[in-house]
Amino acid sequence: MSRKIILAAFVGLMLVVTPGASHGMHIMEGFLPLGHSLFWGAVSLPFLVAGILSLKRSLKEDRNAKLYLGLAGGFVFVMSALKIPSVTGSCSHPTGVGLSAIIFGPFATTVVGTIVLLFQAILLAHGGITTLGANMFSMAIAGPLVSYGIFKLLGKAGVRKTYVIFLAASLGNLFTYVVTAFQLAWAFPGGPGGFGGALAKFMSIFAVTQIPLAIIEGILTAMVYSMVMEYVSSEGATILTNKA
Amino acid sequence: MRRGVVKLKFLANKNTLVILLIVLIVLTPLLVNRGAEFGGADGEAEEAVLEMNPGYEPWAEPLWEPPSGEIESLLFSVQVAIGAGAIGYVMGVMKERKKIASN
Fold first, then answer.
1. What is the pLDDT of residue A179?
2. Which of A104, A181, B30, B81 has its C-alpha lying 20 to 30 A from A239's C-alpha?
């Protein structure tokens, strides 16, 4: 119960601090039992397929889509490489997938996120191949879905655009790490507190660390988005205008 | 024209404030939590897993690990450079296109 209250307080805090955009610490190679690795791989694969199809469609229908894709992909590259210190005394990094989710939708973002996860797993020993499915699910599926959902919902409610983008990106970021904590607690409920105790432990490691980073991601995503909208010429911007 | 200029200035100021806010959020932990190690959250999770499940043996190892912290930071820098280059290029192209379209 008290955990729920704490979580609600954190979300509330983020709502109060409304200045204006990401991703981070993945599950390490070998740190999910084989069954879990296969499970998350099987769950994530259909999203990747849907993403490739959705991306192909976007690239076909808007001649500027390649440009936006370069921008959204570049943003994920930058954000997910910036390890930022947090009040918990450890570091994590934003994800950057919120921008892509807003421009291209959640499924196309799965493709973008997977490319970055592969890059980091193979070249940086960050995340892993055996945990790729689980990390895809948290950063490239669940987070983008939350970002996109908030963007759609609040966008219709007539909330100011900057705030919508900020909330979409930062809550998507935070949710990515809530999912990571859940995945680890599900795989390793072995402590004295069982699943609940493990979840609290992993939440304190990932989600709490992530709060300031989520705020930073929200701010940067809102800034980049507003710059894009300023430069976008009205003709041929079907992707941005359809979704906005 | 005049109005446009004023609007841009206002935006620039707001962005400056917001960037200062980001710097503040990054610096605060360094000042508040001086003794901390600031290691990766994933490393902490690794410890927590092994602490709660002493019997667990990670069954896979990274295929390749950067041989040193320097090489690792090189690769992270390359990642940022690629990303920032893409963003800068796209922003430039969009800005020029808009300029051409409005002429």
1. 96
2. B81
